[in-house]
Amino acid sequence: MTDRQQLYEGKAKVIFEGPEDGTLVQYFKDDATAFNAQKKDVITGKGVLNNYISEHIMQAVEQIGIPTHFLERLNDREQLIRELEIIPVEIVVRNVAAGSICPRLGLEEGSALPNTLVEFCLKDDALGDPIIAAEHITTFGWASADELDVIYDDTLRINDFLTGLFHGIGVRLVDFKLEFGREQREDGVRVILADEISPDNCRLWDAQTNEKMDKDRFRRDLGGLIDAYQEIARRLGVTVPDLA
Q1: Spelled out in words, what is the top-level CATH class assigned to the domain 6-84+224-236?
Q2: 135-154: per-residue pLDDT in tens?
Q3: Which residues are CB-contacts of 106 (< 8 A; sequence separation ≥ 6)?
Q4: How far apart are CA 88 and CA 111, in angstroms?
């Protein structure tokens, strides 16, 4: 792990000061958590896989004109990223009923939604990341109406793009989580994509068998998480080093 000053540690990543002003280093841990960190484990190699997969997807998102915090991968576990003020809102995009929405609304897992559903959650572990409305976000100043418009529009574009990307490799994008942040620039502040996009924060099912290829393998004690993540990397054409 880098010897730079640590600024923040989350469930799956550590953030360090960057080599230049306006940059940070994002380190991917092997820690696995679920149910608001009530379930924990260490799965060797998970951080490496997430680093490589997220690099690939972030670069692809950049190519469709959506700015992200990603600058470059430094090594097997670290990325150089733009320094952002993280907006304390998680954006959950649902294409298929799965996860917490099923018991919450009495839906059957795997049932089709009539349209893509975008939900907002306050990013606060102590409160259990409660679901909030757009009005909460603007009322409490977590983001302005204009910023929320950017977030919503970019989220739908990312969903359309990723749905096609995964469909092309025989994977169903069931749902996923995004985060955004503010970048300070000479010409003002812009809102851009942050965090990561990997099997840790996406639900990915094999299109033919509905086999789970994401962190649900850990949540539900299915086993084979590393094999599933490696298969996602393989299908995406991402070359990952030997994890042995």
Answers
A1: alpha beta
A2: 999 999 999 999 999 999 99
A3: none
A4: 30
